[in-house]
From TrEMBL:
Annotated stretches, region: Disordered: 146-167
Biological source species: Gordonia liuliyuniae
Protein's name according to its UniProt entry: SWIM zinc finger family protein
Keywords: Metal-binding, Zinc, Zinc-finger
Domain of life per record: Bacteria
Domain SWIM-type: 91-133
InterPro entries: Znf_SWIM
Keyword match Zinc: yes
């Protein structure tokens, strides 16, 4: 049987988020999520490190949001050295980074879904991860852009140094005095 998701090492890293090797039992939602992704039931929108997935399953639709962690600056520097003038990283670049003791794999920083499942890895989040893995398999530079928060791998170290923008506004950052003031 051919592997639909994760046939490159870059895509396999995304599949490992959905199917961690540390899991003691397989996720019962995974086959359904793979079916949804395989049948084009997921529409992905990538904006920096944020991935919004519109997941259609039967007569219902949900929105899953994924936030990919920023790549470490040491990995960015080594990645540029290994890639040289190439624009797309391949499995040999991944293997060379691993041989240096670096971890180029994408990591999930946060995930949520609009469904009622009340668990982080619902079928919609899993389907989004499988669809993302398929996209990364065909265009590995996509994952580099997501990990950098930029659209290309050339600007990969800017967010690693500055850090990602805050995901939420802390309540202490709001001005109590102006909270109920109406703007005209």
């Amino acid at each position: 049987m051919a592997t639909d998701f994760g046939f490159t090492t870059w895509g396999a890293d995304i599949v490992r988020i959905a199917e961690p090797i540390t899991a003691s039992v397989p996720n019962a939602s995974a086959p359904s999520a793979r079916r949804i992704a395989r049948n084009n039931g997921v529409t992905l929108e990538i904006d920096g490190r944020q991935v919004t997935a519109r997941v259609h399953r039967g007569g219902e639709a949900s929105v899953a949001r994924l936030e990919i962690a920023a790549m470490e600056s040491a990995v960015v520097v080594a990645l540029r050295e290994e890639m040289g003038s190439r624009t797309e990283p391949d499995d040999t670049v991944h293997a060379a980074l691993r041989a240096r003791g670096l971890r180029p794999a994408a990591a999930l920083e946060a995930a949520d879904c609009s469904c009622r499942a009340r668990k982080t890895m619902c079928v919609h989040v899993l389907a989004a991860l499988y669809a993302l893995a398929a996209l990364v398999d065909h265009a590995p530079s996509t994952v580099l852009g997501m990990q950098s928060g930029q659209g290309s791998a050339d600007d990969a170290d800017t967010d690693a140094v500055d850090g990602p923008p805050p995901r939420w506004t802390p309540i202490a950052a709001l001005s109590v005095r102006d909270y109920y003031v109406a703007e005209r």
